[in-house]
Design brief:
427 residues; globular
């Protein structure tokens, strides 16, 4: 098995060399958007230099552009394990794509049909369904999470499924607290009830092997900027479902769900981001020589998962020793296979925005608030107090960065000042 060389991988990310107030920046903000490797930056730049043209021309730059765009679609199919005939659609981001395709899905439903959403999800997999339900006279039912560990119980889903259930929308993993859901089993139960499934894989994509064909999900959406690429969204629709949906598009467009001219330079970066993950599999994941891109991606994501969770165990152990700190979500180390390396916490008596600001002034990047998982943070009773502090580990983080973060959180919780650096303190 190849060694996971985090130093070699970090050298590919130019942003990781940045400093703030003389300190290296420690990026724990990945769930909001990751940094990108040099090959992604180069691919976007190279597109502008050599391939910048609109679609469908008979001249050289247009032919090159179309080849890049076509290969980017195939790369996403490889990334998510899509099957033959499955439709890959690019758009601005997961949220915009979901609002767009919800119109087609809603048109295929009848008044009184039912949609199931969860109280664990990002609002991008809730609000589009609420909106189309209002427009089409549909019924929305909510699968409530168990707040003690922020998980969804399958028995609770069974109680919501019925003869008029037509769609179940849920996340592969929670972007707020990191819970990984049993995707294949949820899909199986939804299909048994006659419903489609719409999976938000935005938070899962940088951490887990995705399997559209193996799980059988009908829709899977993700955003490339969450897995080391540019600001592009991708949606995969199962082939037989595609043909059942009306398309809202201009008549000449040859793609059913991509409206208008695409972000072709972003698609070039998307292709490079997927190739980067395949490179991880080849150099650090033990993929065999001659392995397919899909096989290299699986090897890379498997190696990333192992490294990240080793790092998360170090983080979780340190957080458990900080007084006044509460960690939300799955906290039992024996169940860490059911979570991503994403920690959501509060410190008693200190608003989360202030914790994040103090960390930011030490060159440590984290997010605070509800991260658009608004329903979950409201259910936890944390909205009025500023929500959560979210620490998102990625495979380019290090043990030294985790220790630095733990030291800073310990000082903040204990009310101790940070070391003097000549940088003004936060208000």
């Amino acid at each position: 098995m190849a060694t996971f060389d985090v130093g070699a991988l970090r050298s590919r990310f130019p942003a990781l060399s940045m400093t703030d107030g003389g300190r290296p920046i420690a990026f724990f903000d990945g769930p909001g958007g990751t940094q990108v490797p040099d090959t992604v930056i180069d691919a976007v730049s190279r597109y502008y230099r050599t391939s910048n043209a609109n679609h469908g021309g008979s001249f050289a730059t247009s032919r090159r552009s179309d080849a890049i765009v076509d290969e980017a679609h195939r790369a996403i199919a490889d990334l998510v394990g899509a099957g033959p005939g499955d439709e890959v659609t690019f758009g601005q981001n997961m949220t915009t794509l979901t609002f767009h395709v919800s119109r087609s899905i809603g048109a295929a439903l009848a008044p009184g049909d039912e949609i199931v959403v969860t109280g664990l999800d990002h609002q991008a997999n809730v609000d589009p369904w609420l909106a189309i339900a209002r427009d089409r006279g549909l019924v929305v039912r909510t699968w409530e999470p168990h707040l003690e560990d922020c998980t969804l119980e399958l028995a609770d889903l069974d109680a919501l499924l019925g003869p008029r259930t037509r769609l179940v929308g849920f996340g592969w993993a929670s972007n707020a607290v990191g819970t990984i859901n049993p995707v294949a089993e949820i899909v199986r139960r939804a299909h048994a009830a006659g419903a489609w499934t719409y999976v938000d894989a935005v938070h899962a994509a940088p951490h887990l092997v995705l399997e559209v064909a193996a799980t059988g999900t009908d829709f899977l959406a993700c955003s490339v900027y969450k897995f080391f690429g540019p600001h592009v969204g991708a949606l995969v629709i199962r082939g037989d479902v595609t043909s059942a949906l009306p398309a809202y598009k201009v008549r000449p467009a040859d793609h059913r769900f991509e409206t208008g001219t695409g972000n072709f330079e972003g698609y070039a970066g998307t292709l490079a981001a997927v190739e980067y993950l395949a490179d991880v599999g080849a150099a650090h994941g033990g993929a065999e020589r001659g392995a397919s891109r899909r096989e290299r991606i699986v090897a890379g994501m498997t190696a990333i998962r192992a490294y990240e969770m080793e790092l998360y165990r170090r983080l979780a152990a340190g957080l458990a020793g900080i007084d006044r700190l509460t960690l939300y979500g799955i906290a039992d180390p024996a169940a860490f296979d059911r979570r991503t390396p994403t920690a959501a916490l509060t410190i008693d008596g200190i608003p989360s925005p202030l914790v994040a600001r103090r960390l930011g002034h030490e060159g440590i990047a984290v997010w605070d608030g509800d991260f658009y998982a608004t329903g979950l943070v409201e259910r936890l009773g944390l909205a009025a107090a500023g929500g959560l502090v979210r620490i998102g580990l990625t495979h380019y983080n290090t043990a030294a960065e985790v220790d630095r973060l733990l030291d800073a959180l310990g000082r903040i919780a204990a009310g101790r000042p940070r070391p003097a650096t000549g940088v003004p303190s936060p208000v």
